[in-house]
């Protein structure tokens, strides 16, 4: 829950820059005969590669231990490291302490060009093999890459597959879990004028065997204070497009409705909010719906989720 969000009550009425780096040293024998295969995971190392293959160890940066891509730098003694770490170590070789200069290791770059490697998410289900220099581009969009925790209101660094994140949301963030594809929530907040920028992830719904996150936010849209409710799908965008949802809020013979496609949790809740892809309720109208002396927010938000044929 974001700062300022603790007063919201939900009532459910239904369902370093220094030089000290650990340098990984290894005796390497260049051998191209042990290429990775699609089957099996035995002997697979950090990148889904065969850990006994000297070529891949040769391509591993001794500072960050990530695979190196052009420009690959080397010192006068032949020790290599990636371009990012060249800056981190202040242009000094972390192995022999010689000045690095601007020497490119063109031979190693050429060797890498001839390799075929598996996706780093091989152990999560991706069994495709790619040319070395195509691997990174694929991994940025690989459908098997881990998801980031979708909890709104904190910068949670937990990643994992969907079942792992569902358990994490329930146990660590104490998010309510509900079964069903329809919902009816009443949100009560005293002193609503004090809430200018807050976010809550109120509920996760298990519907059609998939999970959906219901969010409720208070923020400034231009100069106007507004509330916004929206749904995110725990899965990829192409799967999210198979579903639709509607939200409705109202009272006293008036109502606002929203219908749309849930956004994938690949998109952060802030990205969804900033795109205004949800039910937006101006605060004055929210207080009108709340009735009374307009000193307390009492919003009833109803909705449903359905699967597109």
TrEMBL record:
<dbReference type="InterPro" id="IPR013010">
    <property type="entry name" value="Znf_SIAH"/>
</dbReference>
<feature type="domain" description="SIAH-type">
    <location>
        <begin position="114"/>
        <end position="174"/>
    </location>
</feature>
<keyword id="KW-0863">Zinc-finger</keyword>
<comment type="function">
    <text>E3 ubiquitin-protein ligase that mediates ubiquitination and subsequent proteasomal degradation of target proteins. E3 ubiquitin ligases accept ubiquitin from an E2 ubiquitin-conjugating enzyme in the form of a thioester and then directly transfers the ubiquitin to targeted substrates. It probably triggers the ubiquitin-mediated degradation of different substrates. Mediates the proteasomal-dependent degradation of ATG6, a component of the autophagosome complex. Requires TRAF1A/MUSE14 and TRAF1B/MUSE13 to target ATG6 for ubiquitination and subsequent regulation of autophagosome assembly.</text>
</comment>
<keyword id="KW-0808">Transferase</keyword>
<dbReference type="Pfam" id="PF21361">
    <property type="entry name" value="Sina_ZnF"/>
</dbReference>
<dbReference type="GO" id="GO:0005776">
    <property type="term" value="C:autophagosome"/>
</dbReference>
<dbReference type="Pfam" id="PF03145">
    <property type="entry name" value="Sina_TRAF"/>
</dbReference>
<dbReference type="InterPro" id="IPR018121">
    <property type="entry name" value="7-in-absentia-prot_TRAF-dom"/>
</dbReference>
<keyword id="KW-0833">Ubl conjugation pathway</keyword>
<dbReference type="InterPro" id="IPR052088">
    <property type="entry name" value="E3_ubiquitin-ligase_SINA"/>
</dbReference>
<dbReference type="InterPro" id="IPR008974">
    <property type="entry name" value="TRAF-like"/>
</dbReference>
<comment type="pathway">
    <text>Protein modification; protein ubiquitination.</text>
</comment>
<dbReference type="Pfam" id="PF21362">
    <property type="entry name" value="Sina_RING"/>
</dbReference>
<dbReference type="GO" id="GO:0061630">
    <property type="term" value="F:ubiquitin protein ligase activity"/>
</dbReference>
<keyword id="KW-0968">Cytoplasmic vesicle</keyword>
<dbReference type="GO" id="GO:0016567">
    <property type="term" value="P:protein ubiquitination"/>
</dbReference>
<keyword id="KW-0479">Metal-binding</keyword>
<dbReference type="GO" id="GO:2000785">
    <property type="term" value="P:regulation of autophagosome assembly"/>
</dbReference>
<dbReference type="GO" id="GO:0008270">
    <property type="term" value="F:zinc ion binding"/>
</dbReference>
<comment type="similarity">
    <text>Belongs to the SINA (Seven in absentia) family.</text>
</comment>
<dbReference type="GO" id="GO:0005771">
    <property type="term" value="C:multivesicular body"/>
</dbReference>
<dbReference type="GO" id="GO:0006511">
    <property type="term" value="P:ubiquitin-dependent protein catabolic process"/>
</dbReference>
<dbReference type="InterPro" id="IPR013083">
    <property type="entry name" value="Znf_RING/FYVE/PHD"/>
</dbReference>
<keyword id="KW-0862">Zinc</keyword>
<feature type="domain" description="RING-type">
    <location>
        <begin position="61"/>
        <end position="97"/>
    </location>
</feature>
<protein>
    <recommendedName>
        <fullName>RING-type E3 ubiquitin transferase</fullName>
        <ecNumber>2.3.2.27</ecNumber>
    </recommendedName>
</protein>
<keyword id="KW-0967">Endosome</keyword>
<dbReference type="InterPro" id="IPR049548">
    <property type="entry name" value="Sina-like_RING"/>
</dbReference>
<dbReference type="InterPro" id="IPR001841">
    <property type="entry name" value="Znf_RING"/>
</dbReference>
